[in-house]
Amino acid sequence: MAKTPTPHIGAQPGEIAETVIMSGDPLRAKFMAEKFLDNPVQFNNVRGMLGFTGTHDGKRVSVMGHGMGMPSIGIYSYELFNFYDVKTIVRVGSAGSMHPDLHVGDLVIAMGACTDSNYVGQYELPGSYAPIANFDLLRKAADTCDRLGYRYKVGNVFSSDIFYSEHPQHEKWMKMGVLAVEMEAAALYMNAARSGKQALTICTISDHLLTGEVTTAEERQTTFTHMMDVAFSLI
């Protein structure tokens, strides 16, 4: 097949910037385009996975949805890294806290990502692989949080394949210092490593597995802007 457009992204060569900020919800990508981009132009609507390119503080950047789960972000990030010459992907999303001091609205910057997925099996490695973020991006993100006064923690997250689990295992991950659970970071980090590119995940805590704190879908879509501020500071 021709490299571009791909089966999942309808953009032509050159329509996507070297840096892409991604979110699971395509409507959050639309929100970011409207709030943060000057002169945004839509480059994708295949399967409703909206993508836009514009400028932010004079620098070209794209925003795009990636769907839910590692198979979905695995497809989109692979095509962006390998067919559209994207160099950096920053994922902004929601996560469930597994730490007593990480509350709704706080940020978690994923230094590494544990997973129960077999996504890594395709690489046929002779052991366990530890997917990690790009350090330069991580350091800049933490510095931005400090400068803006945002509450955050840096550490390990758990990228789960299962949302409704028959046998929840979060207490075991908590014992190993894992801060929060989400569903995409591990696949993104593996694709970045395999492609020789860079990636980072920044999540806003949307619920708490220990305290029962929760947010609404509308709040998750439109009010989790601190992580977006941090993401756009990395361009």
Task: Break the fold down into its secondary structure elements and pairings.
Blueprint: E1 19-23, H1 26-36, E2 38-44, E3 51-56, E4 59-65, H2 70-83, E5 88-97, E6 107-115, H3 135-148, E7 152-159, H4 170-175, E8 180-182, H5 185-195, E9 198-208, H6 217-222, H7 226-232
Parallel strand pairs: 1-4, 1-5, 5-9, 6-7, 7-8
Antiparallel strand pairs: 2-3, 3-4, 5-8, 6-9
Helix pairs in contact: 2-5
Structural write-up:
The protein has helices at residues 26-36, 70-83, 135-148, 170-175, 185-195, 217-222, 226-232, and strands at 19-23, 38-44, 51-56, 59-65, 88-97, 107-115, 152-159, 180-182, 198-208. By secondary structure, the protein is an alpha/beta fold. A 5-stranded mixed beta barrel has the order 5-8-7-6-9, surrounded by 4 helices. Helix 2 (70-83) packs parallel to helix 5 (185-195).
Features:
alpha/beta; 7 helices; 28% strand; five-stranded mixed β-barrel; 235 residues
Distance between the termini: 32 Å
Low-confidence stretches: none
Radius of gyration: 17 Å
> For the largest beta sheet, what order do the strands appear in spatially?
5-8-7-6-9
Q: Oligomeric state of the chains? A: single chain
Q: What structural class do the secondary elements suggest?
A: alpha/beta
Number of strands: 9
Q: Helical segment tally? A: 7
Order of helices and strands: EHEEEHEEHEHEHEHH
Overall geometry comes to globular
What is the beta-strand fraction?
Answer: 25-35%
Major pleated sheet: 5 strands, mixed, barrel
Can you give the helix content as a percent range?
25-40%
* Average pLDDT level: 95
